[in-house]
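From the shared-data thread, chain only:
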Amino acid sequence: MDTKRLIIVAVGGQGNLLASKVLGEAALLAGVPVRMSEIHGMAQRGGVVESAIIFGDAQSTIISDGEADVLLGFEPSETLRAMNRCNSNTKVITSLSPVPPFTVAIGKGIYPEIDDMVSLIRQRTPALIAFDAMKLAKEAGSSMTLNIVLVGALVQSNVLPLTRETVEEAIKLRTKKGFADMNIKAFNLGFDAAVDCCSMQ
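Structure, as tokens:
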């Protein structure tokens, strides 16, 4: 089995860790070896939260610079910041919904233009899926499903050895029963959004 290396970057409160658990559960259901590690920043204050997940046979959970097969970003500036993990063949999937840091809110910083960030990312990889995941999360029923919207886009990219059906089952197992239908809707919206992005490229 080919080894696939995934980096997920987000800011605190966006559900990075739940997304990682869903993907890990899906791997277990599919019989795919999986290793995970997480780096917590000041998550409670909107700091960066990063997960590294390796699917397939691997001795370590460390993903060095240039080694990621896919980068999943929940926030565009964090996606751009993590581009050093990518190479020219890395698939990059990012939400375009900004979460400006508190320094911007207090007037001590300037948040980059979305179009400028997308342009910089495209210069590093030809394989970019970028869309407003927050809009789709709200369409699904809650902004809290942004993480699952992006998981849907990730699965559609076909980089990972996981099927749509297996991940849907993992979502049902790893999310609260009362929110299962909403999360499945979010997953499907993200999956379809990735299809649309690919058809436009």
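The longest helix spans residues 180-200.
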